Amino acid sequence: MTQFERRLSHTSLSSFRRCKMRYKWGYIDNHAAPSSPAQIKGGVGHVGLAAWYPAIANAKTFNPAGDIALKAASDKLAEYEREAGKEMTDIWDDIAIILERYFKWAIDADDFQVQEIEYKFELEIDDFILIGYLDGIVQRIDGTLWILEHKFTKQARVKHLELDSQLSLYMLAARASGFDVRGALYNVIRTTLGGIAATEPVVRLPVYRNNEGLQQIAREIVLQMKEMRTFHEQNGKDAYRNQIMDCSWDCSFFNPCLAMNDDGDPTPALQLIPIKEYKK
C-alpha cells in the first residue's frame, strides 16, 4: 500500500482518540480555532526555554542568559498578539515570572549538558510518517542520554506518566533517530503564581520505557493510523462526538458541539472559526 500522504503527530493522534467529530472539524475540514490563554502560555514558555539553554551554555551566568530567553519569549507573545489583534499584558506578566522562577531553579537542579534543543523528527512507521519536536536531548553526568520534556500546567499531575502516549511516541522517535535515550526527564512547570508554586515552581520526574513495551506501543499506533487513513478516505462521514465533562474548558469546538444539541446544525458556529491551509 502506498504511503499515507498526511503526516501525523501526537496532537492529531490524541485528537482522533478523544473525539472523532473534533478531529473531523480540525483535521479534515481544517478549522483552526484561536489558541487559548493556557496554550499561549505554553507556547511562549517553550520558546523561552528553547532560548534559555543555549544562552546559559554560552554565558554560564544567569544574566545575560535570562534576558536573552525573556526576549525570545516576548517576541513569541508578540506573534500571538498580532494574530489576535490585541495586547496580552496579563499573560506576559504571568509567564515572565514563571520563566524567571524556572531559570533560578534550573541553575541548581540541572545535572546535564544539552545535546539538542527543539529537535525535529520524522518517524516512519509502516506506511505512515509521524512528525514532531523534542524539547531537548540531554546527557546527564553519568553519560546517559535523556529526552527533556516541558509541560506548563497549573497542577503537578504525574500519575499518568507511566502510560503517557506523548512520552512513549517521543522515546520511539528519539531511539529511531539514533539517540539511545534511557528515558525522559519530565518537567512539570507550574503556571500558578502563589501557593506551592512559589517555593516549588518545577517538579522533574524521570520516566522510563523498555524496548519491548515500545514495540507494542508502535504496533498500536499503526493500528490507529490505519483507522485514521480510512477515516480520511471516507471524509469523516461516520464522525461522532465524545461528550465528556472536560469539553467545556479544553475543546475549541465546544460552541459548534453545543449547537448540535440545540438544532443539529453546527454550521453557523463553525463559520466563525477560521480555515487553515493544510501543508503536506
UniProtKB/TrEMBL annotation:
Give the organism the record lists.
marine sediment metagenome
Q: Which InterPro entries match?
A: PDDEXK-like_dom_sf, PDDEXK_AddAB-type
Domain called PD-(D/E)XK endonuclease-like: residue spans: 7-253
Enumerate the Pfam families for this protein.
PDDEXK_1 (PF12705)
What protein name does the entry list?
Answer: PD-(D/E)XK endonuclease-like domain-containing protein
